[in-house]
User: What shape does this take?
Amino acid sequence: MKTAFLFPGQGAQVVGMGIEIAHSYDIAAKIFEQANEILGFDLSRICSEGPAEELNSTAISQPAIFATSAAILEILRTQDKTSNLHPDVTAGLSLGEYTALYAAGIFSFENALKLVQKRGQAMQAAADATEGTMVSIIGLDEEKIHLLCEQAGEDELLEPVNFNCPGQIVVSGTKAACRRAKELAPKYGAIKAVRLDVAGAFHTSMMSSAAENLREALSDCEISPPSTIKIIANINAEYYQDEEQIADGLVKQLTSPILWQKCMEQLLEDGIEEFYEIGPGRVLTGLMKRINRKIKVNNISTAQSLSELIK
Assistant: This one.
Protein backbone atom coordinates (compact mmCIF):
# COMPACT_ATOMS: atom_id res chain seq x y z
CA MET A 1 0.00 0.00 0.00
CA LYS A 2 1.40 3.38 -1.05
CA THR A 3 1.72 5.91 1.76
CA ALA A 4 1.96 9.72 1.95
CA PHE A 5 3.10 11.86 4.87
CA LEU A 6 1.41 15.29 4.94
CA PHE A 7 2.69 18.28 6.92
CA PRO A 8 0.68 21.37 7.97
CA GLY A 9 1.56 24.98 7.30
CA GLN A 10 1.20 28.32 9.05
CA GLY A 11 -2.07 28.70 10.92
CA ALA A 12 -1.82 25.26 12.56
CA GLN A 13 -0.03 26.69 15.60
CA VAL A 14 -1.69 26.74 19.02
CA VAL A 15 -0.26 27.47 22.47
CA GLY A 16 0.64 24.17 24.14
CA MET A 17 1.36 22.30 20.91
CA GLY A 18 4.00 19.60 21.08
CA ILE A 19 4.62 20.00 24.81
CA GLU A 20 2.68 16.94 25.98
CA ILE A 21 4.51 14.97 23.27
CA ALA A 22 7.87 16.30 24.49
CA HIS A 23 6.98 15.32 28.07
CA SER A 24 5.98 11.82 26.94
CA TYR A 25 8.87 11.07 24.59
CA ASP A 26 12.52 11.92 25.29
CA ILE A 27 13.33 11.94 21.56
CA ALA A 28 10.76 14.70 21.00
CA ALA A 29 12.17 16.73 23.91
CA LYS A 30 15.62 16.44 22.29
CA ILE A 31 14.24 17.83 19.00
CA PHE A 32 12.92 20.90 20.84
CA GLU A 33 16.24 21.30 22.67
CA GLN A 34 18.08 21.16 19.33
CA ALA A 35 15.67 23.71 17.91
CA ASN A 36 16.28 26.09 20.83
CA GLU A 37 20.05 25.88 20.25
CA ILE A 38 19.84 26.37 16.48
CA LEU A 39 17.37 29.28 16.67
CA GLY A 40 19.06 31.03 19.61
CA PHE A 41 15.88 31.44 21.66
CA ASP A 42 13.57 29.27 23.78
CA LEU A 43 11.09 28.03 21.17
CA SER A 44 9.77 25.27 23.43
CA ARG A 45 8.78 27.85 26.06
CA ILE A 46 6.82 29.89 23.51
CA CYS A 47 5.11 26.72 22.22
CA SER A 48 4.27 25.76 25.80
CA GLU A 49 3.32 29.07 27.37
CA GLY A 50 2.75 31.55 24.55
CA PRO A 51 1.52 34.21 24.64
CA ALA A 52 -0.54 33.54 21.50
CA GLU A 53 0.45 36.92 20.00
CA GLU A 54 4.11 35.90 20.10
CA LEU A 55 3.52 32.37 18.81
CA ASN A 56 1.29 33.65 15.99
CA SER A 57 3.93 36.04 14.61
CA THR A 58 5.22 34.74 11.28
CA ALA A 59 8.84 34.67 12.46
CA ILE A 60 7.94 32.40 15.42
CA SER A 61 5.01 30.30 14.18
CA GLN A 62 6.90 28.90 11.19
CA PRO A 63 9.85 27.38 13.11
CA ALA A 64 7.41 26.31 15.86
CA ILE A 65 5.23 24.31 13.47
CA PHE A 66 8.28 22.81 11.76
CA ALA A 67 9.85 21.74 15.07
CA THR A 68 6.60 20.22 16.37
CA SER A 69 6.06 18.27 13.14
CA ALA A 70 9.71 17.10 13.15
CA ALA A 71 9.39 15.95 16.79
CA ILE A 72 6.35 13.80 15.96
CA LEU A 73 8.12 12.45 12.88
CA GLU A 74 11.14 11.49 15.00
CA ILE A 75 8.91 9.52 17.38
CA LEU A 76 7.44 7.58 14.45
CA ARG A 77 10.95 6.86 13.16
CA THR A 78 12.25 5.53 16.49
CA GLN A 79 9.33 3.56 18.00
CA ASP A 80 9.34 -0.18 17.28
CA LYS A 81 5.71 -0.27 16.11
CA THR A 82 6.16 2.56 13.58
CA SER A 83 9.84 2.41 12.60
CA ASN A 84 8.89 0.49 9.44
CA LEU A 85 6.30 3.11 8.44
CA HIS A 86 7.92 4.83 5.46
CA PRO A 87 6.30 7.28 3.04
CA ASP A 88 6.40 6.81 -0.71
CA VAL A 89 5.57 10.51 -1.06
CA THR A 90 5.69 13.57 1.19
CA ALA A 91 3.74 16.80 0.82
CA GLY A 92 3.38 19.94 2.90
CA LEU A 93 1.08 22.94 2.73
CA SER A 94 3.20 26.05 2.05
CA LEU A 95 5.54 26.13 5.08
CA GLY A 96 4.83 22.39 5.48
CA GLU A 97 6.74 21.73 2.27
CA TYR A 98 9.96 22.31 4.22
CA THR A 99 8.97 19.55 6.64
CA ALA A 100 8.09 17.35 3.66
CA LEU A 101 11.55 17.93 2.19
CA TYR A 102 13.19 17.24 5.57
CA ALA A 103 11.18 14.01 5.95
CA ALA A 104 12.35 12.93 2.48
CA GLY A 105 16.01 13.49 3.38
CA ILE A 106 16.49 16.58 1.21
CA PHE A 107 17.51 18.85 4.11
CA SER A 108 19.17 18.13 7.44
CA PHE A 109 17.16 19.17 10.51
CA GLU A 110 19.47 22.10 11.18
CA ASN A 111 19.44 23.40 7.61
CA ALA A 112 15.67 23.03 7.29
CA LEU A 113 15.04 24.86 10.58
CA LYS A 114 17.45 27.68 9.67
CA LEU A 115 15.72 28.07 6.29
CA VAL A 116 12.30 28.12 7.95
CA GLN A 117 13.52 30.76 10.41
CA LYS A 118 14.90 32.92 7.58
CA ARG A 119 11.70 32.42 5.57
CA GLY A 120 9.54 33.53 8.49
CA GLN A 121 11.72 36.57 9.20
CA ALA A 122 11.81 37.55 5.51
CA MET A 123 8.02 37.19 5.15
CA GLN A 124 7.45 39.25 8.30
CA ALA A 125 9.78 41.98 7.01
CA ALA A 126 8.04 42.00 3.61
CA ALA A 127 4.66 42.18 5.33
CA ASP A 128 5.80 45.07 7.55
CA ALA A 129 6.90 46.97 4.44
CA THR A 130 3.56 46.52 2.65
CA GLU A 131 -0.15 46.84 3.45
CA GLY A 132 -1.57 43.42 2.71
CA THR A 133 -3.73 40.65 4.12
CA MET A 134 -5.73 37.55 3.10
CA VAL A 135 -9.38 36.45 3.07
CA SER A 136 -10.71 32.89 3.00
CA ILE A 137 -13.74 32.55 0.73
CA ILE A 138 -16.07 29.59 1.34
CA GLY A 139 -18.50 28.30 -1.27
CA LEU A 140 -17.24 29.75 -4.57
CA ASP A 141 -15.62 27.98 -7.54
CA GLU A 142 -12.49 29.26 -9.30
CA GLU A 143 -14.41 31.12 -12.00
CA LYS A 144 -16.45 33.14 -9.50
CA ILE A 145 -13.36 33.80 -7.37
CA HIS A 146 -11.60 35.33 -10.38
CA LEU A 147 -14.64 37.52 -11.10
CA LEU A 148 -14.77 38.58 -7.45
CA CYS A 149 -11.07 39.49 -7.48
CA GLU A 150 -11.53 41.48 -10.68
CA GLN A 151 -14.37 43.54 -9.21
CA ALA A 152 -13.04 43.91 -5.67
CA GLY A 153 -9.47 44.62 -6.79
CA GLU A 154 -10.31 47.96 -8.45
CA ASP A 155 -6.80 48.06 -9.96
CA GLU A 156 -5.21 47.10 -6.62
CA LEU A 157 -3.51 43.75 -6.03
CA LEU A 158 -6.00 40.95 -5.29
CA GLU A 159 -5.41 37.35 -6.35
CA PRO A 160 -6.59 33.83 -5.49
CA VAL A 161 -3.58 32.18 -3.86
CA ASN A 162 -4.60 29.11 -1.84
CA PHE A 163 -6.62 26.49 -3.72
CA ASN A 164 -7.16 24.30 -0.67
CA CYS A 165 -10.17 22.17 -1.52
CA PRO A 166 -13.49 22.44 -3.41
CA GLY A 167 -15.29 25.52 -2.17
CA GLN A 168 -12.39 26.93 -0.14
CA ILE A 169 -10.09 29.40 -1.85
CA VAL A 170 -8.02 32.12 -0.14
CA VAL A 171 -7.48 35.48 -1.83
CA SER A 172 -4.55 37.76 -1.04
CA GLY A 173 -3.79 41.40 -1.74
CA THR A 174 -3.99 44.94 -0.40
CA LYS A 175 -5.99 45.47 2.78
CA ALA A 176 -8.52 47.67 0.97
CA ALA A 177 -9.03 45.14 -1.83
CA CYS A 178 -9.41 42.30 0.68
CA ARG A 179 -11.98 44.34 2.61
CA ARG A 180 -13.98 44.87 -0.58
CA ALA A 181 -13.70 41.16 -1.44
CA LYS A 182 -15.08 40.23 2.00
CA GLU A 183 -18.02 42.62 1.51
CA LEU A 184 -18.77 41.55 -2.07
CA ALA A 185 -18.33 37.78 -1.63
CA PRO A 186 -21.97 37.10 -0.57
CA LYS A 187 -23.22 38.72 -3.81
CA TYR A 188 -21.29 36.07 -5.74
CA GLY A 189 -22.88 33.30 -3.67
CA ALA A 190 -20.20 32.79 -1.02
CA ILE A 191 -21.32 31.05 2.16
CA LYS A 192 -18.73 32.87 4.21
CA ALA A 193 -15.74 35.21 3.84
CA VAL A 194 -13.27 35.41 6.70
CA ARG A 195 -10.29 37.73 6.99
CA LEU A 196 -7.31 35.67 8.11
CA ASP A 197 -5.10 36.66 11.02
CA VAL A 198 -1.92 36.92 8.94
CA ALA A 199 0.81 39.54 8.73
CA GLY A 200 0.56 40.25 5.01
CA ALA A 201 -0.43 39.33 1.46
CA PHE A 202 1.36 35.99 1.29
CA HIS A 203 1.88 34.22 -2.06
CA THR A 204 1.69 37.47 -4.06
CA SER A 205 4.21 39.95 -5.48
CA MET A 206 4.13 41.73 -2.10
CA MET A 207 6.44 38.93 -0.94
CA SER A 208 9.05 39.61 -3.69
CA SER A 209 11.66 40.92 -1.26
CA ALA A 210 11.19 37.82 0.92
CA ALA A 211 11.64 35.61 -2.16
CA GLU A 212 14.95 37.35 -2.96
CA ASN A 213 16.20 36.83 0.61
CA LEU A 214 15.15 33.19 0.54
CA ARG A 215 16.90 32.57 -2.79
CA GLU A 216 20.12 33.88 -1.25
CA ALA A 217 19.69 31.60 1.82
CA LEU A 218 19.01 28.58 -0.39
CA SER A 219 22.13 29.23 -2.46
CA ASP A 220 24.20 28.69 0.72
CA CYS A 221 22.26 25.61 1.83
CA GLU A 222 23.10 21.97 1.12
CA ILE A 223 20.25 20.34 -0.83
CA SER A 224 20.32 16.58 -1.43
CA PRO A 225 18.76 15.19 -4.64
CA PRO A 226 15.43 13.34 -4.35
CA SER A 227 15.92 9.57 -4.07
CA THR A 228 13.40 6.91 -3.05
CA ILE A 229 10.84 9.27 -1.48
CA LYS A 230 9.01 11.60 -3.87
CA ILE A 231 8.08 15.17 -2.91
CA ILE A 232 5.20 16.95 -4.63
CA ALA A 233 5.52 20.70 -5.19
CA ASN A 234 2.89 23.21 -4.07
CA ILE A 235 3.37 25.49 -7.06
CA ASN A 236 2.54 23.00 -9.85
CA ALA A 237 1.47 19.66 -8.26
CA GLU A 238 4.44 17.95 -9.93
CA TYR A 239 7.19 15.91 -8.29
CA TYR A 240 10.56 17.54 -7.69
CA GLN A 241 13.25 16.02 -9.91
CA ASP A 242 16.46 17.70 -8.73
CA GLU A 243 18.02 20.20 -6.33
CA GLU A 244 17.61 23.16 -8.70
CA GLN A 245 13.88 22.54 -9.00
CA ILE A 246 13.56 22.34 -5.22
CA ALA A 247 15.31 25.68 -4.64
CA ASP A 248 13.30 27.28 -7.45
CA GLY A 249 10.02 25.86 -6.13
CA LEU A 250 10.60 27.13 -2.60
CA VAL A 251 11.39 30.63 -3.86
CA LYS A 252 8.42 30.75 -6.26
CA GLN A 253 6.16 29.46 -3.51
CA LEU A 254 6.35 32.85 -1.74
CA THR A 255 4.89 34.77 -4.68
CA SER A 256 2.78 32.03 -6.35
CA PRO A 257 -0.49 30.26 -5.58
CA ILE A 258 -0.50 27.07 -3.50
CA LEU A 259 -2.27 24.27 -5.39
CA TRP A 260 -3.03 21.94 -2.47
CA GLN A 261 -6.17 20.43 -3.95
CA LYS A 262 -4.34 19.54 -7.17
CA CYS A 263 -1.46 18.04 -5.18
CA MET A 264 -3.83 15.73 -3.29
CA GLU A 265 -5.74 14.80 -6.44
CA GLN A 266 -2.42 13.92 -8.10
CA LEU A 267 -1.43 11.67 -5.19
CA LEU A 268 -4.78 9.88 -5.35
CA GLU A 269 -4.42 9.47 -9.11
CA ASP A 270 -0.95 7.98 -8.54
CA GLY A 271 -2.34 5.30 -6.24
CA ILE A 272 -1.60 6.66 -2.76
CA GLU A 273 -4.01 4.92 -0.38
CA GLU A 274 -2.74 5.68 3.12
CA PHE A 275 -2.30 9.24 4.38
CA TYR A 276 -0.79 10.54 7.63
CA GLU A 277 -1.03 14.16 8.73
CA ILE A 278 1.98 14.74 10.98
CA GLY A 279 2.10 17.95 13.00
CA PRO A 280 -0.13 20.29 14.99
CA GLY A 281 -3.85 20.53 14.21
CA ARG A 282 -6.21 18.83 11.78
CA VAL A 283 -6.25 21.28 8.85
CA LEU A 284 -5.08 18.84 6.18
CA THR A 285 -7.31 16.07 7.52
CA GLY A 286 -10.27 18.42 7.13
CA LEU A 287 -9.26 19.49 3.62
CA MET A 288 -9.00 15.89 2.45
CA LYS A 289 -12.60 15.27 3.55
CA ARG A 290 -13.64 18.00 1.12
CA ILE A 291 -11.35 16.73 -1.66
CA ASN A 292 -12.33 13.04 -1.40
CA ARG A 293 -14.70 11.85 1.35
CA LYS A 294 -13.67 8.21 0.90
CA ILE A 295 -10.09 8.84 1.98
CA LYS A 296 -9.25 8.58 5.67
CA VAL A 297 -6.28 10.58 6.93
CA ASN A 298 -4.52 9.26 10.02
CA ASN A 299 -4.07 12.43 12.07
CA ILE A 300 -1.03 12.39 14.37
CA SER A 301 -1.03 15.67 16.25
CA THR A 302 -1.26 14.76 19.93
CA ALA A 303 0.32 12.41 22.47
CA GLN A 304 -2.95 10.44 22.52
CA SER A 305 -3.00 9.95 18.74
CA LEU A 306 0.63 8.81 18.93
CA SER A 307 -0.03 6.32 21.73
CA GLU A 308 -3.01 4.87 19.80
CA LEU A 309 -0.78 4.31 16.78
CA ILE A 310 2.17 2.94 18.75
CA LYS A 311 0.35 0.69 21.29
